[in-house]
Amino acid sequence: MAAPSHAAPPPRAPSGLARLLPAPALLALCLAVMASACSATATTTGTPEAAADAAESGSATAGAEGTLAVSVARATEQPIARFIGVTGTLTAEEQADVAAEIAGRVVATPVERGTRVGAGAELVRIAEAEVGAQAQEADANARQIEARLGIAGGTAFQIDRVPEVASARAAAELARADFERAEMLVEKRLLSQADFDRSRTQAEATARQLDVTRNAAEQQYQALLAARARAAIAQKALADTVVRAPFSGVVEQRLVSVGDYVTRGTRVASVMRTNPLRVELTVPEQFIAEVSAGRAVTLTVDAYRGETFTGIVRYVSPALKTDTRSLVVEAVVENPGDRLKPGFFATARIEQASPDRALLVPAAAVRVVAGSPRVYVVSGDRVEERIVTTGQTVGEAIEIATGLMAGEAVATTSVAQLVDGARVSIQQD
Q: For every residue of the chain, which 3-state class applies, written as one string?
C-alpha cells in the first residue's frame, strides 16, 4: 500500500505592488513611509510655543493678506500735569493725652476704647462733694460783699451808691451847709466865735469821714473782686470734676477706672482726630520749585490696593533737611468713614506747579508684545508698526515719549490683529 504523499501548498501570488516593484525598491518605499510618519508625529507633539508661533504666523499672514477695518486717532500735543513721587506716613490730625485738672476719686467712666466722642463729651467724672462745697462758700462770700456795697443783679460798681458812702456824703454836705451859714452869722455878729468854731470843726470832720468811707468802700470793692476770683476758681474746680474731650474724635485709650484716685496732671484718656489725616512727605531738593501749598496730592496705601485717595498740600517747610537735602511737606487727606488709619505707609504723587506738554494717543492704540510697547501708524491703506516709549497715563490717554510724531494717525481698534504692512480700511466712528 502506497504511503500518502504530503504535497506542499501552492505558493501565494504576490500582491499587485509586490509584482510591480522589485524587492529593493519595495524596501526603500517602506522606509520612506516610516520616516514620514515619524516626522508627522514630531510635528504634532511639538512644544506649545511652537504651536503658538505657527498660529501667529498663520494669523499674521491672514492679517497681511486681508483687509481689517480700524478706527484711527491722531497723536496730539497737550499740556499735562506732572507728578512727583514721594512716600510718607499717615498721622492723626490731632492727638491729645487728656489729664485730670483736680485731685479726687473717679466715680464714672462713660467711654471705652474706640468710643467716638464729640468736642466736650464726658470722658471721666471725679467726685465733686468737696469742691462743690468750696464753690458754694466762695460764691456766698462774694455775694455778701456785693450786698454790703449795694451791688445787685449784676449792676456795675459805683462808689457814690454805696450806702455808707451816701450817708457820709449827706453828713458832710449838711455840715458844710451849717458852716456856710455860721460864716454869714458870725460876720453879722449874730453868732458867737465858739459856735462858729464848732461848726467849722464839724464840717471838716464830716469831710474827712467821707474820704475814709470812700476809701473803705474802694477796699471792699477790691475784696469783692478777690472773692469773685476765688468763686470763679472754685467753679472751675467744680467743672473740672468732669474731664471732657478737647475735640471730636475717637477715644484711643482710657487709662483709669472707677475707684481710682487721681491727682492733678494724671492722664485719664487719649483722644485722636482721624478725619482729616495728615501725611508728612519728603521731597527731594531738585523738585522743591515745583511744590507749593495748595497743590493736589494723590496717594495709595497697601491696605486698599487699586484705590487712590486725594489731599492738599497744607505746609511746606521753610528750610531743607541738611542731612538728606530734602524738604518736608505736609498734606491733609480727607478720611470719611475712617478707612485710612494713622500709621499707614503711603505712596503719594504731588502735582507739580507748572504743567508740561506731552504727545498723547488713546491708550487702546498701544499694544505690548514681549514687554515692548508699539503702535500701528496708518498711512493710506497700510499700517507701519512702530516701537515706542510710553510715559505717563492721563485718563484714557497715554504719553508717547519716543517713536511717534504729532499729527500721525494710529489705529485704535483691532490692534491685536495688526502686523507691520497689514492692509486696513478706516472706519468712521
A: CCCCCCCCCCCCCCCHHHHHCCHHHHHHHHHHHHHHHHHHHHHHCCCHHHHHHHHHHHHHHHHHHCEEEECEEECEEEEECCEEEEEEEEEEEEEEEEECCCCEEEEECCCCCCCEECCCCEEEEECCHHHHHHHHHHHHHHHHHHHHCCCCCCCCCCHHHCHHHHHHHHHHHHHHHHHHHHHHHHHCCCCCHHHHHHHHHHHHHHHHHHHHHHHHHHHHHHHHHHHHHHHHHHHHHHHCCEEECCCCEEEEEECCCCCCEECCCCEEEEEEEEEEEEEEEEEEHHHHHHCCCCCEEEEEEHHHCCCCEEEEEEEECCCCECCCCEEEEEEEECCHHHCCCCCCEEEEEEECCCCEEEEEEEHHHCEEECCEEEEEEEECCEEEEEECEEEEEECCEEEEEECCCCCCEEECCCHHHCCCCCEEEECCC
